Structure formats: C-alpha cells, structure tokens
Amino acid sequence: MPSPNIWHWPEVYEQENRAQDAAGQIWAALREAGDWAGADVLDVGCGDGFHLPYFARTARTVAGVEPHPPLVARARARVTGLPEVRVLAGGAESLPLPDASVDLVHARTAYFFGPGCEPGLAEADRVLRPGGLLAIVDLDATCPPYGDWMRADLPRYDPAEVERFFARQGFRQRRVDTRWRFADRATLEAVLRIEFSAEVAGRAIAATDGLTLPVGYRLHTRRKPSGLVLP
Fold first, then answer.
1. What pTM was computed for the model?
2. Strand 212-223 relative to strand 172-181: parallel, antiparallel, unpaired?
3. Per-residue model confidence as pLDDT tens digits over 51-95
4. What phi, psi does 95 have (nearest 5°)?
5. Which of 61, 77, 162, 219 has its CA 20 to 30 A from that of 134?
6. CATH: 3.30.1490.20, 3.40.50.150, 3.40.50.2300, 3.55.40.20. Which one for 4-222?
C-alpha cells in the first residue's frame, strides 16, 4: 500500500519524525516491553530509516526493510558509517531475512493496521527467534484531537475492531500518550497538510494553538513462544 505522506513529501515527513514523541514515551514503552541492547533488530517498513540509528546505539545489528525504492536509497544514505546497520528492499509479507534471525521486529505506523495483515504477522514470527518480540506501534484513533481528525478522513476505520483483531492474535496492548513538538508554526502546518485532506487539515490547523500537539499511540506486543506450546 502506498504511503502518500512520506512517498510524496519526504522532507516534510522528516520534520514530522523529528517532532514526534518529544519526551520519548514510545521509546520508553518499547524498552519496558523488551530491551534490544545487544540484540538483533528488524524495523519493518523503515521508510527513510529515521529510527535505525536510534536502535543502533545499543543493538548488536539492525536491519531495515522498506518496499519503496526511493526510500530505500534515502535510508541507506542515512546509515552510511554505521556498519552494524543494513537496509534491504522488501515488504512485510516477504521479509528478506532468514528464519529465526532477529530478536525484535519493530513496525511503526507501517503495514500492520489490523485485519488483512496476517501474512506480515506470519513473516514476523518466521524471522523471530524463540522468545523474540514483535512490537507494533500505531496511532490511537480513539485519542483526541488527532484521532478525531483521522476518523474524519477514514470514516470506515473502526479502531475498536482493530484492537479486537490484535487481541485475537494474542497481542498485549498499551496506550501511550505523547506530544509532538515543532520548531515553528510553518512546519506544524505543513505536517498536518500531508497527513490529512485539505478540509480536515484546515480544521486541525485552526484548532491547534502553539507548537505542540497531543497524539496518542497504541503499542501492540507479542512474544514468540520459546518452548513447546501445549493445547
């Protein structure tokens, strides 16, 4: 599936990435779920590789997988000089990694949006070692105001059904409240314009004072069994 925001406006999306999770709440929640220090990490749908250097600070190795060739090139340029990081072209449904080769599979607002992503879940399980963690970070459409704007543009999206889907798949869910913090008003407005339709973006801009924006996320986590699982 195309990702129009980062595909068409990668420079604006770069500023969005820099603004997101200003206090590091998502990173803290991820570490509590399963620290990757000394581990082998895979970032699925890594885009232009924004999160790869962060994982590389403590991970043993980091692999980013991205299906869109221009983003693969940008990601590879970003991690030049980081020998423990590699970027591979590929999609979530056919990961270019061997079986049981990573300890953490991370995906942030990429591919795993609910029903229909079962092939990607199966691939994540294939490349995870026993005891490894699959961590999916997604926007929480029940959390205003950002969630309200999401649902206005996606009237068929049912966040409750998405949550039930992940529960049926054996995931634990944690809600994470964050703030996006922008350097200036022009950047904030540019980001809202690439995330929403013109009408909804206009509403969002008018409703947002200052340079910060509260945005809620869901963290879905599931460990691969490390031993015999009995019925």
1. 0.95
2. antiparallel
3. 999 999 999 999 999 999 999 999 999 999 999 999 999 999 999
4. -75, 135
5. 77
6. 3.40.50.150
